[in-house]
Amino acid sequence: MNGTGREWYWSGTQSESYSDGAWGQNFGDGSQGYYLKGSVFRARAVRRVPA
Asked: The pTM is what?
């Protein structure tokens, strides 16, 4: 997995409905979900590559 663990990581997308939450991504199983910003997740820098 190129050094990415199977833990949860924060996305850069804040919830539109709740300012106290943001989306998380699990690179182990591909799941995503909304979590409170107080949750302890890792951060990973990514960039979009033009097609």
From this structure: 0.56
Number of helices (H) and strands (E) in the chain: give both, helices first: 0, 3
Q: 33: closest CA among 16, 20, 6, 15?
A: 15
Please name the residue that has the structure tokens 């910003």: 37
- Report the distance separating Cα 35 and Cα 24, nearest Å: 7
Contact 24, 41 (CB under 8 A): yes
Q: Which residues contact 33 (CB under 8 A, 6 or more apart)?
A: 23, 24
pLDDT confidence bin for 30, thresholds 50/70/90: confident
Sorted by where each begins, the domain ranges of the chain are 1-45
